[in-house]
Amino acid sequence: RDQHKKKVLLVSCDVYRPAAIEQLRTLAQQLEIDFFASDISQKPQDIALAALDFAKRHYHDVLIVDTAGRLAIDTAMMEEIQQLHAALRPIETLFVVDSMTGQDAVNTAKAFGETLPLTGIILTKLDGDARGGAALSVRQITGKPIKFVGVSEKLNGLEAFHPERMASRVLGMGDVLSLLEEAQRGVDVAEAEKLAKKVKSGQGFDLNDFKMQIMQMRKMGGMSALMDKLPAQLSQAAAGSKVDDKSINRLEGIINSMTPLERSKPELIKASRKRRIAMGAGVQVMHVNQLLNQFEQTQKMMKMLGKGGGMAKLMRGMAGKFPGMGR
Predict the structure, then answer these.
(1) Fewer CB in 10 Å around end: N or C, the chain?
(2) What Cα–Cα distance (Å) separates residue 126 from each residue in 129, 151, 155?
(3) Does pTM surpass 0.90?
(4) How confident is the model at residue 69 (pLDDT cuts 50, 70, 90)?
(5) What gap in Å lies between CA 163 and CA 159, rounded to an integer?
(6) Cβ neighbours, 10 Å, residue 91
(7) What topology does CATH give the domain 183-318?
């Protein structure tokens, strides 16, 4: 929807699992896309055809039909999905499989591949320990391409599958290309340009900018998603710094407890203000001090970057803090 400017309609044909329709309705609301209402008293094929008619009449570009999960040995359910496919004649028929189920995932994929003209596979839970192996097996057995992978439970946790990038992750080389793509999608260009001007001038970087960086990181999936795509050495270094999503959320909470004046002029924050901010954020004063120290270090870094030869000075200042950097 965001990248290709398509009008999307989502419909659930899962009349068997309790609350399946409501779960999908909630997901559609979170994604801000249209949802076609259905009811467990209806037949899956009737729901799908009604949704297709609605999509045509309301000029939707894409109709996503979610069907019930089923076992390959359930003959009646497999016949139902065949009839549904014949009625809809979809452009894409994607089979969703849990990569953590191992060999069962392979067997299920094979059965569905023999029943339906699949066009691709979606592998979920690929952030687990078994990642990589299931991808190779499912691709080999079905002969169908893996088009998407689920790497987290968050809304942005569904990624286009790139085999070479997955290989890099498994080998500990990271996935910098996906990281850059996420940055392009998530970064507010106007805010980035505003920050760039502050960096260039070497002044004006305040706690509002600091908070903006935290929000941009959240848009990219948070600290855990960022670390998953970093090369092993940098990921280990970041893990050693004990910075996680919980501490990032705490930082944002502390900044939200400050007044606009305190955010723009952090030097005003003394003992009494620190106590008030800590109480408002539900943390200890030492956490406020830690935030101010982190901000001060970031501010110094920004000033270095803004001056002539700033990058060289910055690299010398970081020497020894990360593996592979000389002093």
Answers:
(1) C
(2) 8, 5, 15
(3) no
(4) confident
(5) 12
(6) 8
(7) 434 Repressor (Amino-terminal Domain) (1.10.260)
